[in-house]
Design a protein that fits this description.
10 helices; 3 domains; 8 strands; 5-stranded mixed sheet; 3-stranded antiparallel sheet; phosphorelay sensor kinase activity
Length: 328
Amino acid sequence: MDRNRIIQEINPAATRMTGWKTGQKVPYCLFCQHREVVHGEERCLLMGKNAPSYFESEMPTLHGENIPVSFSTTYLPTEDETIEHTVLMLRDISQKKQEEEMRMAKLLARQTIEAQEAERKRLAQELHDGIGQSLYSISMALGLLRQTVPESDAQLFTIASSTLADTMKEVKQLSVALRPPALDILGLKAALVSLIRQVEQHFSLKITICYNLPSSLRIPSSIELHIYRIVQEALSNAAKHAKSPVVFISLCSLSDHSGFHIIIRDKGKGFDPIHVHRHSTGLGLKHLAERTELLEGSMHIDSAPGCGTVLRFVIPFASMEETGSEKN
């Protein structure tokens, strides 16, 4: 193009990308359209003084759209070294932008989940060390006071003690739900067994688990927490929405030893996955998908109204190790 940005020559690839033709004026990119310029300054960044040899922006096309492109330039000086023509090279970076957006979305999801887990851990500790200990002290004081009151008031102390015991139990359950101590102390299998007992007691649900991961497998603690939350969320969905009397859980290695799968199957009322994906305002399935994606895994839902639900998660060993290394 010349100094007036009139196209002198253009190759077929650039024409297909932009729709431009010889003799037309190259439009300003979105950056140059909106940047502030002083009097006498060239609006086109590439035509001004100290022009960058490379930068990225979005370029309007004759097709009526803006495409993300990278610009690089070469100048063709005349014999007196004045610049008369500029060779403008464009590269479509749409895929690069999409990959970057996906990477940033994944990073944001990871940071959000990590922040949530850190806050859960803090709250669990405060419930246990703060409120839990205070309630225990009240319980001890109530027991001492009981010895000093007449029998006519004994029933009041019995009611108060029972209410306090229920409150202490609820606080403990909240603390465990926020951050299961068994996971840090005993590992994933024991934590899942403890979780199953809690869900069975709370929802009158029969849950069977088959845990066949190799004993030699060393799962980073951060990854164990993701797996625990996946099972926890899936069980919560089954208990609250599926109306199933039984749930089956399986954690087994894949036949090619490239990873392992988590299968959670219920015999509840089922649902239409497509309809739920489009219309549901709940975050349960969304959270399951986010955690699975953070582990570089895949999630598949097999369900239909009246036919129960099967959730299948595949977690690769290699990416699990990489994710754990990043976290650690």
